[in-house]
């Protein structure tokens, strides 16, 4: 997911910024239109920043699962249950692509108190979950 986003943003940047730079240089060499070229460059940069903010806010708010209590040791993502697991050889440095967030579900109220989830590189059995400043490794329960 992150790889696609990075490639997309690089192509977007190249498609918007490179023509703007060429236009700016041609405008300077022609002796005019510098103001128009500067506006074009500024608008291009603003579009890239707005696109990045929209993508970032989508990733943060993308809910992929739930947990049922605040001190939860189990998370459910797409019907698959993961439980806290301290008996493994993984750490936060092994996290891979960002998957989304899991939220707390109260029976009376839908509260968003997100825990952020990453995959662990090289395995489908483990995930890395971050809540506030506390990160934990979770293992798939069969």
How would the blueprint of this fold be written?
Layout: H1 2-30, H2 34-61, E1 63-67, E2 74-77, E3 80-84, E4 95-104, E5 115-120, E6 126-131, E7 134-140
Parallel strand pairs: 1-4
Antiparallel strand pairs: 1-2, 2-3, 3-7, 4-5, 5-6, 6-7
Helix pairs in contact: 1-2
Structure characterization notes:
This protein has 142 residues and is of the alpha+beta class. It folds into 2 domains: 2-61; 63-140, no CATH class. It contains 2 helices and 7 strands, in the order ααβββββββ. The chain has helices spanning 2-30, 34-61; strands at 63-67, 74-77, 80-84, 95-104, 115-120, 126-131, 134-140. Strands 1-2-3-7-6-5-4 form a 7-stranded mixed beta barrel. α1 packs antiparallel against α2 (34-61). The chain is elongated and about 65 Å long. The mean pLDDT is 77.
- How do the strands of the widest beta sheet line up side by side? 1-2-3-7-6-5-4
Number of helices: 2
Number of structurally distinct domains: 2
* Arithmetic mean of pLDDT: 77
Report the strand count: 7
Please compute the radius of gyration using only Cα atoms.
Answer: 22 Å
Low-confidence stretches: none
Backbone structural class? alpha+beta
Shape by Cα distribution = elongated
Strand content: 25-35%
What is the H/E order?
HHEEEEEEE
C-alpha end-to-end distance: 25 Å
Largest sheet: 7 strands, mixed, barrel
Helix content: 40-55%
């Amino acid at each position: 997911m992150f790889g696609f986003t990075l490639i997309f943003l690089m192509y977007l940047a190249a498609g918007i910024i490179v023509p703007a730079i060429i236009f700016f240089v041609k405008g300077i060499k022609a002796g005019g239109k510098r103001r128009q070229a500067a506006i074009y460059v500024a608008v291009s940069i603003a579009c890239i920043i707005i696109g990045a903010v929209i993508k970032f806010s989508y990733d943060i708010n993308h809910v992929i699962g739930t947990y049922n209590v605040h001190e939860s040791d189990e998370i459910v993502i797409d019907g698959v249950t993961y439980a806290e697991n301290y008996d493994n050889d993984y750490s936060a440095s092994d996290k891979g692509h960002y998957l989304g967030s899991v939220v707390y579900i109260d029976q009376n109220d839908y509260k968003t108190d997100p825990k952020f989830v990453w995959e662990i590189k090289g395995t489908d059995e483990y995930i890395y979950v971050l809540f506030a400043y506390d990160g934990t490794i979770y293992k798939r329960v069969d």
